[in-house]
Amino acid sequence: MPSNQETRALSAAQIQHFIDSGFVRVDDAFPRRLADEARAILWRDTGCDPDDPATWTRPVIRLNQYGQEPFVQAANTPVLHRAFDQLVGPARWVPRATLGTFPVRFPSPDDPGDAGWHIDVSFGTETPDFLSWRANVTSRGRALLMLFLFSDVGENDAPTRIRAGSHLEMARILAPAGEAGLTLGEMAADGFAETAHLAEVAATGDAGTVYLCHPFLVHAAQPHRGTRPKFMAQPPLLPAQSLRLERRGGAYSPVEQAIRIALGMIP
From CA 242, how far away is CA 96, in angstroms rounded? Predict the structure, then answer.
């Protein structure tokens, strides 16, 4: 029989960091071999030559919904599945069949045009106006935000910027709106100024690193000042059942615990 330690991906300290700061970094979440195989596919679809920077003419190229074997394997490693169980709860999430959107970022002096602070909204997406897409206090349609690094990402390689602890402030902002929630436009009206005082963390790491983030975490892209393009996927972990802020027996996941703490409910 495996020990309890062997079946856990995250330590108690890491889970507490997720509750307090809104994210946890998982090193070696998937093998570098899979990152290399996936990146070769992505390079092909950018239309750029990896060995000729003269072909890297745009600051960002968006690629969407990759379900080939390297991507599916990267999204479904045993360590990630165990971490999903720990953060969201067993049987409360849906395995990924694709890896969502890849905003491939190239070294460039130009503004990428998508570097504003935001949270990733999760429902109401049937309309073309993304500012009308919504989030609510029980995070309808999203269990986690995830950042999969498919290339090595250093401080100059456009790492995602994270406002540590911002998920708590956003829970308090969303709560009065109830089930209907708020649109991205409503939340972004002041540029997420309520979280501007919080410490900023850069999501750096080697290829194979995954950041598992609370769905309310405020984050942003930034221009690429390095020398090699950045390849990152940013899929949601979809819920198999809705988050609940009132559970019989109190079996709250860390995602739910963080929201309850933010709202002054008993953890």
Answer: 17
